[in-house]
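Archive entry: two folds, one per protein. Generate the first.
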Amino acid sequence: SSGINAEWPLRPGSKIIAELPYLITLPTLQLAICYFMIGLRGELAAFLTTVLCCICIAWSSTGLGWFIAAATGDLRIASAISAPIIMPFFLFGGLFQSENTTPIYFKPIKWISWFRYGYHMLMVNELKDLELDCINDVVPCPNGTIILEQFSINPEELWWPNIAALLIFGGTLCIFAWSCLICRVRR
């Protein structure tokens, strides 16, 4: 095969660079609209940390999409297998159930779930050292750090390992997608 499509896998950075405006502007725009309306922390650093985390989650998800598309080569097949592949990462990433209640045979999935690392980073960013104000002084948890501990989230893990894992997942999935494309072009 010849032409532009056959040459693209030889320059993997071009696809990533072409997607950067999309990967940066959409999460930033969405958060700029919702973040302060929801009433999350008002500090600029907290907002920028949330934006960075959401960009990294989007990059990891996009990397998986590229990998599935490159591995299957067919839109119908890629669409059919995407949900079953993503669902375990989503379910066992800690959002829907505590890591302590996850059956032992599903625990390895949590370590490769970018949802887990993004969720932990967002939870620490929002809840660490947060003082809760409740009506009638009925406070089930006096501060956000206790809530983090109840969810088995280390309040000191804002950047490491969370942001590193998100960047590694995104990069690794892009490399896997690029490798699949190289194999397809050489056939």
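Generate the second and append.
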Amino acid sequence: TPRMDGSIWVGPNAVLAGSREGYSWSSYDTKDLIEMASFRGLWKLAVPNLSYGLKEVAKSALLPLQLADLQRFIPEVKMTDLVRGSAGVRAQAMRTDGTLCDDFEFDESCPGMLHVRNAPSPAATSSLAIADLVVERAADQFKL
């Protein structure tokens, strides 16, 4: 990803974090891990994709593996070109069947309430369009 300062970032990738606020490899929360491990949807997603997922985790943790992957596309990239960047955490809603929710999910099951779940990227760049959609759904729900 080209940046405004002229640098180029590789990524982002997406690997499972050890906690809801896990911004580093050493960040984990036992309660969050137990909750993740007990959610059957995670297992339904993880098991068939285990090999791919483990490769992504390894590439995220080990720069030499990331370099080898990058060199398939840009052979002249060297280890000295790589600098580890900051990490972020983005929530991703998942259904119990293991499928990811790719878009907004509206829950209108509680009278007088409209819940908007799952704000996938690029949520911030489309915030006005999202607001229009929420207003439209709220107007329908509440007869405004």
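Annotation attached to the second fold: The longest helix spans residues 127-142. The longest strand covers residues 105-107.
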